Amino acid sequence: MKNLKDRPFALVGVHIGGATAKRLKAVMEKENITWRSFVDPGSAGAGPIATRWNLSATPTFYLIDHRGVIRYK
């Protein structure tokens, strides 16, 4: 990420493993994860975010440009 420090970008995490927001927050604090992350509720891979983005496993990485277009998955 250091090579992108002067470029506009956002790093966002989506957890599809079925954990609660409280559990994810604890892991983020323990692992010093500083980017915004969301919990996708429900069974792994069956929540609304995973369904819409076709996520079946983590990690899955998307590169999204400033217009919201997915450039790389």
Could you list some keywords that capture this structure?
flat, two-stranded antiparallel sheet, 73 residues
Describe this structure in words.
The chain contains 2 helices and 4 strands, in the order βαβαββ. The protein has a two-stranded parallel ribbon with strand order 1-2. The chain has a two-stranded antiparallel ribbon with strand order 3-4. The radius of gyration is 13 Å and the shape is flat. The chain starts with 11 loop residues before the first strand and ends with a strand.
Number of helices: 2
Strand content: 15-25%
Distance between the termini: 17 Å
- SSE topology string: EHEHEE
Major sheet description: 2 strands, parallel
Q: Which parts are unreliable, with pLDDT below 50 for 5 consecutive residues or more?
A: none
Please state how the strands of the largest beta sheet are arranged side by side: 1-2
**Strand segment count:** 4
Share of residues in helices: 10-25%
Mean pLDDT: 82
Rg, alpha carbons: 13 Å
Structural class of the helix and strand makeup?
Answer: alpha+beta
Q: Shape, please? A: flat
Explain briefly what this protein structure is.
This protein has helices at residues 21-31, 48-53, and strands at residues 12-15, 36-39, 63-64, 70-72. It is of the alpha+beta class.
Can you lay out the helices and strands and say which pair or pack?
Blueprint: E1 12-15, H1 21-31, E2 36-39, H2 48-53, E3 63-64, E4 70-72
Parallel strand pairs: 1-2
Antiparallel strand pairs: 3-4
